[in-house]
Design a protein that fits this description.
Helix content is about 35%, strand content about 15%. With about 325 residues, the chain is α/β, with parallel strands linked by helices. A seven-stranded parallel beta sheet has the order 8-7-6-9-10-11-12. Strand 3, helix 3 and strand 4 form a beta-alpha-beta unit. Helix 5 crosses helix 7. The two termini are about 30 Å apart.
Length: about 325
């Protein structure tokens, strides 16, 4: 009997939908590492969500042929081992497009209005009308990573009257983006932008790529918004830029270490807004995720059509 292993809690309505569309496969759940290692040994399809899987588990999974991840990033997986085994990996790219784009727009408006300063005054019962009130209309937005989320951010930002530029691994025209730069030209984004949004994945090529050299190129009035992966930014350089006023402010949802350590200077800086890795969270998350699962499952079981979000092992996403 073909077996599907799900290693997270799935609400009954989605479980019932999966049962109706699984082609008679057995569906098994595992929520702890010990039972997962045992169940994975004779699993053909793994549906996983933000859980690190050791290489040895994959090596022992002799019948495993396809892994569907319900996150955009696949850095929790042992990609080298999966590639050696010839296992298909598909991601959850596209799930986050709408709600992460909303987070990006909200972040820029909050920064333009200096709401982080206004909210601090509120907590102190302090009536202070001096925090400058700006607008994002006419500002230049630089987007690092023009995947599905980056393209949606570009579309929405353009509707607010922003000029949009961006970075893409393979430069090519992107709707709503005035100019697309290659990865090696990334520093041009920092020079020009009033807001820089980082959406880069964590790969060997991107790790630590946003550093002091980038922040030093930014306008002192510019802001940085980190929504990609914490490992892509040299956090010590970012903290120094904020302390020295090299850049005006930061909104960050991702960090080098998570949870963010209590002794991190980021907690105490006045020009910082922190959120605990929630920009990719929504009450509609699983609804959109199941659309991807069901499409790919149908393709896999029938051998007809094309899976969406197939991971390119060479790129790491």
């Amino acid at each position: 009997m073909r077996k599907i292993l799900v290693n997270f809690d799935l609400e009954e309505e989605y479980l019932e939908t999966l049962r109706k569309n699984c082609g008679g496969c057995t569906i098994v759940f595992s929520r702890d590492r010990g039972s997962m290692a045992e169940e994975l040994k004779d699993t053909e399809i793994l549906i996983t969500f933000r859980r690190r899987i050791p290489s040895e588990m994959i090596r022992d999974a002799r019948t495993l042929k396809w892994v569907q991840v319900l996150t955009a990033g696949v850095d929790s997986l042992p990609l080298d081992t999966l590639r050696e085994r010839g296992i298909i990996v598909t991601s959850g790219t596209g799930i986050h497009r709408i709600f992460m784009a909303e987070y990006a727009i909200a972040s820029m408006i909050n920064l333009a209005r200096n709401f982080h300063l206004v909210f601090r005054n509120q907590m102190q019962r302090k009536w202070d009308r001096t925090p400058p009130q700006g607008e994002i209309y006419g500002a230049t937005l630089g987007i690092l990573g023009l995947g599905s989320i980056g393209r949606e951010v570009a579309r929405r930002a353009s509707l607010f009257g922003m000029r949009v530029i961006g970075v893409k691994r393979t430069p090519e025209p992107v709707e709503y983006v005035e100019r697309v730069y290659g990865f090696r030209e990334m520093k041009d984004i920092f020079r020009q932008s009033d807001y820089v949004i980082n959406l880069l994945p964590d790969t060997a090529e991107t790790r630590g790529v946003v550093d002091k050299g980038c922040f030093d190129l930014m306008k002192s009035s510019a802001c940085f918004i980190n929504m990609g992966r914490g490992a892509t930014v040299r956090e010590s350089d970012l903290i120094e830029a904020l302390r020295r006023g090299t850049i005006r402010a930061l909104v960050s949802d991702v960090f080098a270490a998570e949870p963010l350590p209590e002794d991190s200077p980021l907690w105490t800086l006045d020009n910082v807004i922190l959120t605990p890795h929630i920009c990719g969270v929504s009450d509609k998350y699983m609804e959109r995720g199941m659309d991807i699962v069901l499409h790919n499952l149908k393709v896999y079981l029938t051998g007809s059509g094309t899976m969406v979000n197939a991971v390119d092992y060479a790129r790491g996403y």
